[in-house]
Amino acid sequence: MHLFYKISKRITLMGVAAVFLAGCAAQAPYIKLEPSLRKDIRVLNGVEYLPIIKLCDTYGFSCKWDDIVKTATIEGKNGRAVLMAGAGSALVGNSQKKLDRPALLYNDALFVPVSFVRKDLGYLFEKPYYEKPPEVAAAKKFAINTIMLDSGHGGKDVGALGRSLRLREKDLALAISKRLKGVLEENGIRVVMTRSDDTFIPLSKRAEIANRSGADLFISIHVNASRSRRLSGFECYYLSNATDDNARAVEAFENSSLKIDNDKIFGNSDSLSTTLWDMTLTENRRESVELARSICNSIGDSGLVENKGTKTARFYVLKHVRIPSVLVEVAYISNRYEEMKLKDPRFLDKVTDALAQGILHYKREYESTEGFTNI
Is the overall model pTM greater than 0.90, yes or no? Predict the structure, then answer.
């Protein structure tokens, strides 16, 4: 680890244990997670973790690592934190802080829960980013509190490939999803992801994850492709029959993942009964349409990419999700100009912000009109 070095004086287990018995202090100021860290998040045992080495690089902390007792000491301008692999507590300043999950050794690096960064790292800063956490809306009947983000493709399912720069859809979908997750969380929304790394998740599993998540919305992130290099722009789909040739082509491509889906839960999409199809189509249709329109309007206002509007298709992943859901195609990776845009991190940041603003606008409208009952 290039940032860590051995402590010259060995820290004994007894000494570390004594340190962890220190008294408790006031709640640390809430810390904003730097966007650059999102790509380093790993899901271990179902929990989001960050490697300490990246954490310290990003925030400018110095670190010491004792390989004998597997303990890291982080030094900031305003204090220090001591963490031990496998321990459910950390010493922050002079106080013992209980971790949501233990610190873990993974690939010879120490990882800490993301929640530790947000809740307890503020003690190490002279001037933290927030004085208190963003407030999450109180539970009520018409509220958007949790969103499921689905990063298209992944693992052996590469998705579309760029013709010029050979960018891969699966990588771009994950990069945009991680950025979007951070923006939504900073606005007090809980975000769950179907995948947070380069893992193949069958379409049937994605629907199952969404239905078990307790999420209020499902948003699947993709980039588009076409045999025609001239096609470009942003599209947002909701569930219904495809009404034009391009929509049918997109539908066929995104559903092609079923060919490598070895763990189907619902079976082949063609076997869905007419009754079940009608129920799925109508139950959340209005909310899905409003969400798609709000996102498209925000993209259009941003001027980042042409807004080609809302479209309909029978995407497998939308068909089996029992909450309002949309699938976005951010740009055309098959278009040389738009592939160059997609390679630029600044474009990804800006288009993510536009997506987030569309989602947040929908949230405000949905909650203020009690599920659009007043529209």
Answer: no
